[in-house]
Specification:
four-stranded antiparallel beta sheet, globular, 9 helices, alpha/beta
Length: 241
Amino acid sequence: MADEGFTHPRLAAIYDALDGDRGDLDAYVRMVEEFGARQVLDLGCGTGVFALLLAGRGIEVVGVDPALASLDVARGKPGSERVRWIHGDASRLPPLRVDLVTMTANVAQQIVGADAWREALRGAYAVLRPGGRLVFETRDPARRAWEEWNRQESYAVTDVPGAGVVESWVEVIAVEGQLVTFRWTYVFASDGRVLTSDSTLRFRERAEVEAELDAQGFVVDDVRGAPDRPGKELVFVARRP
């Protein structure tokens, strides 16, 4: 299930404005070029930022997301007709054949259940051509990123076109083993409405991720650092033999 930040129409509409710079996507664009991918499946495409970026470069893109409100935002953007949008997840994909499957940002970590994670990997494997790759990132749990997720560090006031001024901040609710749950709060100045969105991420160890990829038939070609967060992220490059 997607979080309220992606499924609530009012929150989905302001997501891009509050998400800020998406320089993290530059590394994914470079990998599309590196692997010569011409057909890409973007799992957890959200509001379509990455899918549209690739489509604008002439790449054939399929964007999949379980949050209909986010897909509605994506479909309303210029160039959206170049992308095939699918409401769903990796466990229920139509017949496809692609060169590359991506899960950018927190997508992989938001798949917290063991069964759901295996289904996502199996779904990605099924649509990849032999030699095709799955690329995704996960935060290195040793860096304990959640210790910086608090109101003092995250509080922001943003003037969002069409929505007005929005206050936002994040606070951690619980840390239970690999699971970290946190809550974003949004205050709309236009009418005083307060909305919240709770999210849970699973911080998997590198060896655990590699073992699961191997179990699903992938070959792990590389584990890279994320250029925008050096030393904090693990970027997995897995190939269907």
